[in-house]
Input
Amino acid sequence: RSTMGCRLPGVALPREVRRLFDRQITAALACLEDATPPPDDDTIHRARKHVKKARAVLRLVRGALGGSFAIANNGLRTVNRMLGEVADAGALVRTLDRRRQFDHLHLPPGPVAEIRVGLLARAARVRREAEFVRLRQCATHLLQVEQARQTAFKLGKRGRAAVEVSVLPSLNSR
Output
């Protein structure tokens, strides 16, 4: 009897890991394909969430994956950092604009205005069509590489032994 919510009776753990990983990478790729320059924050946020979920699947079986884990994890981390540049650009400006809530801090308007101008310039640069298209192509390529690589994932352990020890207590509580 399996206590893993993602595992179906009769389905091998390596196949299930590949299926879940593939589902998240495919969803991230779909988000990037839908993103038209300039990208909206929600599309980039959804793509990043899917990449984070793919990394979480890998972390579940990190010990059983051996060296494959580090390679895939690093590739996905790189993609999320690239997409983070796009997502963070607009978020920083919005955060600074919300500073009005903190007027009691007496922030000097001159330096705040200079910071805002710099952040707007950075956001415009990151969102420029040519730069985003290049970034999207690079991120898409990296995701496709990781998606192709996952077919070769070999778990060095079987069953519960393949799942990270830190995850097992939460599985036993179900």
Summary: Residues 67-97 form the longest helix (31 residues). The helical segments are 13-34, 41-60, 62-65, 67-97, 109-127, 129-149, 168-172.
